[in-house]
Amino acid sequence: MVDSQDPKKHERRVTSIERVFRRSPYSVVTLVARIKGHVTEEMLANAVSRVQQRHPLLRVRIVEDDHGEPWFTSEGVREIPIEIVPRESDDHWIQVARKMGQLPFEFDRRPAIRFVLVQWAETSELVILCHHIICDGLSLAYLARDLMEHLGDPTREVEVLPD
Questions:
Q1: Is the distance from CB of 149 to CB of 55 less than 8 angstroms?
Q2: How distant, in Å, are the alpha carbons of 39, 77, 79, 100, 151 from that of 45?
Q3: Do strands 113-119 and 70-73 pair parallel, antiparallel, or not at all (unpaired)?
Q4: Which of 2, 38, 40, 116 is the most buried (most CB within 10 A)?
Q5: How far apart are CA 61 and CA 82, in angstroms?
Q6: How far apart, in whole angstroms, are the C-alpha atoms of residue 54 and residue 49?
């Protein structure tokens, strides 16, 4: 818990709508992108790092103050999970998305998003799973677009979005 009197410990209170989603641990928005060409873990980690710089809610975790109120904070945020899974078939991504969608997010440790690359030498599927507390379908589509742009051009300048 954090001290509710210390404004440096948290940046924004979780809204009442966001709280509803927080109580539903499996409110997961999933997007899958098929990528032609070989994507390495390093390439994906670089692109994720760049979109994390652009999108503010990818830089926060959730903490509770001393009154049990949830807050978004950027202090002590751990890395966004990236997993690489060898591609077994054309529809293997479906099994991966189902399995990963059932895993709870670590709200108190890291941003409520994870990336899984179902990797093959010529074609891979990128499964992005994001909890509804920080995204909706449209925002996840924009994030995927930004991620693909940074995969395609790793030196592309990052334009940070306002909070």
A1: no
A2: 10, 16, 10, 18, 9
A3: unpaired
A4: 116
A5: 17
A6: 9
Q: Are 107 and 22 in contact (CB under 8 A)?
A: yes
* 8-state DSSP, 11: S
Of the candidates 145, 19, 129, the residue with the CA atom closest to the CA atom of residue 70: 19
Does the pTM surpass 0.85? The reply is yes
Closest CA to 60 of 45, 80, 46, 44: 80
Return the residue matching tokens 């209170």.
13
Tokens of 79: 């890395």
Order of strands across the sheet that contains 70-73: 12-13, 70-73, 61-64
Please give the span between the terminal C-alpha atoms of the chain, in angstroms, as a whole number. Answer: 24
pLDDT (tens, 9 = 90+) of the chain, 163 residues, equals 444 444 444 588 887 777 666 666 668 999 999 999 999 999 999 999 999 999 999 999 999 889 888 999 999 999 999 999 999 999 999 999 999 999 999 999 999 999 999 999 999 999 999 999 999 999 999 999 999 999 999 999 998 888 7
- What is the 8-class DSSP label of residue 58? G
Query: What is the distance, to the nearest Å, from the Cα of residue 52 to the centroid of all Cα atoms in its chain?
Result: 8
CA distance linking residue 143 with residue 136, whole number of Å: 11
